[in-house]
Amino acid sequence: MGAQRIESGTPEGDALGFSEDLFSGWLEVRDDNRLYLHYIISRRRCEGNTQDLIRTWLSIGYDVRVVMPRPIMQHILRKFRFVASLEYLPRQYEDCIEVWYRPKIPDHPFLKRHEVKVAALS
User: If phi over 0 gives left and psi between -120 and 50 gives alpha, with beta otherwise, what is residue 87?
Assistant: First the structure.
């Protein structure tokens, strides 16, 4: 499976909304449409840029994963119903590490309506 490391401030990063004026850090995009955010620092805190970035990636269809998020990032991820898991990423880490992801919601009309109602209450 192919993977591409993308840093903020590169043409590839800018194309994904991971621009240097808003973020520093790097991510990895894999051929299976999985996007791993390994490290991110928002240059403009409390403006919602990180939430907008994650929302955009999810709407495009990326399977977004966040590696070892800090508490403030965990707070953001919970809003998107991400959960913690363990993964083995041998190219970057020696052992299994904490990775947060958003479980797929089954394609069922009732569940989709229910998710919209729950999201409105959050």
Answer: beta
Tokens describing residue 43: 């240059």
Name the burial class of residue 59, with classes exposed (0-12), middle (13-18) and buried (19+) by CB atoms within 10 angstroms of its CB: exposed
pLDDT tens readout for residues 36-65: 988 787 877 777 788 898 999 999 889 999
- C-alpha span between 24 and 43 (Å, rounded): 7
The verdict on pTM exceeding 0.85 is no
CB-based contacts of 117, cutoff 8 Å, min separation 6: none
Select from 25, 23, 22, 21 the least CA-distant residue to 6.
25
Cα atoms found within 13 Å of the Cα of residue 87, Cβ hemisphere only: 17
Q: Give, for 50, the enclosing helix (H) or strand (E).
A: helix 49-60
